[in-house]
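SAMPLE LOG
Freezer: B-3
Tube label: C17
Construct: single chain, 154 aa
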Amino acid sequence: MEKGHKKFIIIGGIILVFIITLIISQSYIKNIKLNNEIENIIEEKNLTKEKNVIDILKSIEIGLTDVNRLDPDVKYALSIYFAISYISILPYVNQYSSHPEIQRLLREYKFLLKFSDEIENRPFRYTGMITRLFGLRLSIKIFPYLMKFYKNNR
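STRUCTURE (predicted):
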């Protein structure tokens, strides 16, 4: 083979390797960017859910402020209403249970569970009764699994 052809083949090979490396690295960079975007979306979604849980618990706190000054029937009705709100978030609290504000509000309004016997909606009533029976910590750990099982078997 002539000396010029060898140089041409070597340079062509180097250029080909460079192009392939460039294509692979561009693809890799796109995958990294896509993964980062997906992680950001998931993180934003989780922050939104965490904020929703806090908002619901704080709405209970606001709603029960000065409740003792109300008529007993109104106080009773509000207690049932806020018991439903409290119970509705229990299956979603586990992943945020280390948040200090959520911990405080969950403990503070745990007494609402005693109104679960008065709730007509069976799933809410049973969720409240299970939470009273097993305790708040254990219940919020098992509820996500029960929700998945319920959704898969509906």
